[in-house]
Amino acid sequence: MDTAHAAKDGTLIGSVQRALRLVEAIHAEGSVTAKRLSRLTGIPLPTTYHLLRTLIHEGYVHREDGAFRLAERLPLPEPLAS
Q1: What tens digit of pLDDT does each residue of 11-27 get?
Q2: What are 69-77's contacts with CB under 8 Å, separation 24+?
């Protein structure tokens, strides 16, 4: 489904879009604080922290010395049982 069609149908998930903006910003910056991520993306700081906590839990982001970095490898799910 193309993005324009999805937006008209209301099927886009805003929290997923915001999380991806954070991933993109971390990728561009390399290592970045939550406060800077909030400024770069326009996402409110409390929401930035909630999304980062989820990204850490899922293995996409790591926190080091107060800054956030992308994981070395994307987490791969276990294959589904047939």
Answers
A1: 899 999 999 999 999 99
A2: 69/26, 69/30, 69/31, 70/23, 70/26, 70/27
User: What's the CA dihedral at 77, 62, 57, 19 to 10 degrees?
Assistant: -90
Element spanning 34, H or E: helix 34-41
pTM for this entry:
0.79
> 69 exposed, middle or buried (CB, 10 Å; 0-12, 13-18, 19+)?
middle
pLDDT at 78: 76
Name every residue whose Cβ is closer than 8 Å to that of residue 35 and which is 6 or more positions away in sequence.
45
Residue 55 scores a pLDDT above 90 = yes
What is d(CA 77, CA 31) in angstroms, rounded to the nearest whole number? 25
Are the C-beta atoms of 14 and 51 separated by less than 8 Å? no
